[in-house]
Fold each of these.
Amino acid sequence: MSSHRNVSSTALVIAGCVVLSGCPLRSPTGVAIGTPHDVLVVQGNNQSVQAGRALAAPVVLRVVDAQGRGLVKQVISLVVTAGGGAADPVTSTTDSTGETRVKWTLGTEGRVQALVATVSTVGSVIISANATFPVQILVAQGDGQSAKIVTALKNDVVVRVTGVGNIPMIGIPVTFSVKAGGGGLSPQSGVTNALGELSTKWTMGASAGSNAIVASSGDLPSVTVNATATP
């Protein structure tokens, strides 16, 4: 009679050990294969965008086991911890590749922004971003023109609001006001477009001579635009 013991077909022999089916397999480190081991930032860290706007690329996170394989249906919680703003969604579940995508809209409470992603059985990872703010108003077009009295200048006055590195600032309120010479402006206020710009049509005053308007926005230094009204 054979001295070999029959082993059930439902068992698997690994490195001399018998593991009954249904028990977790173990990696060389002893961590169960298929068990969450780490949460990684795949994409989207250290981006920059204007404060109050969404990052250009979504934040992509991946939950992996000890072998680096993505795990499906892992729940990730997201909390903004610096700068204000919001993550969407605030709770997400990984897909078949172990990944999930999160839209992050930066806040207006500071340049440094942070988002923490947490998997309860693993721990957390911090995603960072940089919020840019308006630093100046520039005259992009229309300074130094002339036109007859009570007549609109040929070219609109265009001002541009920029951040550090001359990055255009979008949706920034700008107000135009007459400083000298009378005349009129249309519109007198608005918000900057995708180029960070706002334009106004300037009609000269009723007397010949110097005309001037001022463009202002919040606490930024205002800029003056000059023109000459001719008889």
Amino acid sequence: MSDVAVSSRLLIVEPNVTEQAAIQAHLEDNGFAVQVCSTYAEARQVCQNIQPALVVLTLVEPLSEGIQWITDLHQQWQNLPILVSSTPEIVATGIRALRLGAWDYLLKPMTQLSVLEHAICKCLERARLEAENQRYKKEIEETNKRLKDSLDILEQDEAAGRSVQSRLFPKATWSIAGYEFMHCVRPSLYLSGDFTDYFEIGPDCYGFYMMDVSGHGASSAFVTVFMKSLIDRCRFGEHADLMTDPKKLLAFLGEELFQAKLGKYATMVYAVLTPSKNQVYYSVGGHYPHPIYWSGTEGRYLPDKSFPVGMLPKATYENREITLEPNAVFALCSDGVLELIPNLTVAQKELALLGYIKDNHESVEKLFDVLLSQQHQSSIPDDVTVLLLRRTPTV
């Protein structure tokens, strides 16, 4: 039985009673639900009560009546698969039917009904894919509408905009399959040019990222919303395969951001966690400071040389991977974190940050408080974001 046969109700319009019986028997033997009619009038009556999954229509005289019914079906149900057949003498009418909305055309006589079955399966699979694409399109449109509404609010009021942007962030902590995601964000102004997110991609597969858009304030915040929209479009649309290939996703985002001509770029890290393998698969787009790995006994940076996302067209990136040991932490920080550590060289600040993560990696709030305590001014100079992925200690 074909997979597409399940719950697929077919309407067969065939005036030849012998052929009608043979077609019905063959298709029902292969799992299809079949309704047969001998005339266009009967078929019209059936379609007043149900919408078939597919119509198989044999063109016979009067041809104009068959053509008119195809036109009516296409107007009533634009995505209804219609498969027409005819003898070679009226092939021109069959071609006309294709132009009017029929999906496929077969010549009679059909010596092997498996040919008809194959054509039906192809049409039903195409219909399924088109319905799925429509659903994805609707989801994307709804997401884009929500994001557009968010942008409108940001333009009206920065204070309201901060509230809206905060709702786009994931929940502060999220525990899954022996791991815990934690994050904190502190903007230097009302709105943040930093953004982070984590989410499920599929079974045993979780995506997470951090981005730091150039500049500060509303214009950079708008770009974070734009970038989140692109990522959500990939998650729920035709580019879903990019979500498990970090380097390809960064290249896609960079090209989209560059083509948008917003005058902005973003440093970024995108990663994929596979809990069953205790593995993180990641790619870096010019992000600084580099990702930090705390093994449970020592910490180190995971260096990478790459361009920021959206700075250059056609930029390429590399995939890297690391296996997380028990009690390990994979940490991402925006460069504003280093701005909080005063009176030290860059190398000294990097070393100090490793120490802060070593001592406070069990709680992102505690780590954040320690970092903010280094800042003696009333305001922070740059957006500050920390994302921790922590392998939960086993009991």
Amino acid sequence: MRLQHGFSLVEVLVTLLILKIGLLGVLAAQTLSLRQLHDAVQRTQAVAVTNSIFSELQANRQLAASIGAQLNLHAELPADPVCNAPLSCNAAQMATAQLYNMLAYLQPSAGSRLHDPALCLQQHASGLSVSISWQQRAALPERAQPCQASAGRSAFAVQGGGW
């Protein structure tokens, strides 16, 4: 009887198959975690945008009239009023400047991670409701309803009272 040294070819192939299945599982988990991370970053940015809007609206109530019922990236960018130290702005000019800054912040060139965001304002007797929606992935088709969750779009609404 001869002593056998090393591995047979069948043992090596079975080991490689098990290793390959394990690595494919790790790759699938990594892809899923990256997708979830991207969605979490978008949701965090959407929360920050809505908090910013509520703060801006509390500072200047004329802004609600400037925004109107809906605001998205396809809205016409207003002219940025020039108000320097010698010249003071009234509330309407400040609202225009705030709206300009909001639209500029939501632009992808400004580093916004929200794909095709849409904001909707609704005033109620008890306060204000801000709805925001965005495309989950950049390559998805156009949205059907603004400010509503649908296939490929995420959305949420925030209500504030006594603004």
